[in-house]
TrEMBL record:
Name listed for the protein in its UniProt record: Transcription antitermination protein NusB
Species of the source: Congregibacter litoralis KT71
Pfam families in alphabetical order: NusB
Annotated gene: nusB
GO molecular function, one term: RNA binding
PANTHER family with a match to the protein in the record: ANTITERMINATION NUSB DOMAIN-CONTAINING PROTEIN, N UTILIZATION SUBSTANCE PROTEIN B-RELATED
Keywords assigned by UniProt, alphabetized: RNA-binding, Transcription, Transcription antitermination, Transcription regulation
GO cellular component, one term: cytosol
Length: 150
């Protein structure tokens, strides 16, 4: 893959995560199905600049695994997951899904992208919390990768 193609993929995936966070937040708050939310987003937003396959993997992958993802995350939290802000909860679930099921994406990318989204959508200091929790989760789920990267 050329450098330009790689940069385009990174930008398309970043946009996919951006929309996926909003979609997962909407799923959490409104209870609509992932399919309905996807249809709404594809109507309302320009998906020519989005990695559609990645967006679909996130919004259709996280909801059925919420209980499993929460059980991975809860031991790493300083409070119950239901007490987290809905943006933080959605970000941690999405990041947890990527760390667990998308091993094609380096753990540092997952954490960095989650932190960037927390800075954009979360409370003032939430990015630090997201960073800390996902870093601990990465050590559990991707120990060899984390060790090799340090």
């Amino acid at each position: 893959m050329s450098k330009q193609a790689q940069q385009e993929l990174v930008a398309r995936r970043r946009k996919a995560r951006h929309y996926a966070l909003q979609a997962l937040y909407q799923w959490h708050m409104a209870g609509a199905t992932a399919t309905d939310i996807e249809a709404e987003f594809r109507t309302d937003y320009d998906f020519s600049v989005v990695d559609l396959e990645y967006f679909q993997a996130l919004i259709h992958g996280v909801p059925p695994l919420v209980e499993e993802l929460d059980s991975l995350l809860e031991p790493l939290l300083d409070r119950e997951i239901r007490e987290l802000d809905p943006i933080e909860r959605s970000l941690l679930r999405m990041g947890g899904f990527e760390l667990r099921d998308r091993i094609d994406v380096p753990y540092r990318v997952v954490i960095n992208e989650s932190v960037a989204l927390a800075k954009k959508f979360g409370a003032a200091e939430s990015y630090k919390y997201i960073n800390g929790v996902l870093d601990k989760l990465a050590r559990q789920l991707r120990g060899p990768e984390v060790s090799a990267g340090r």
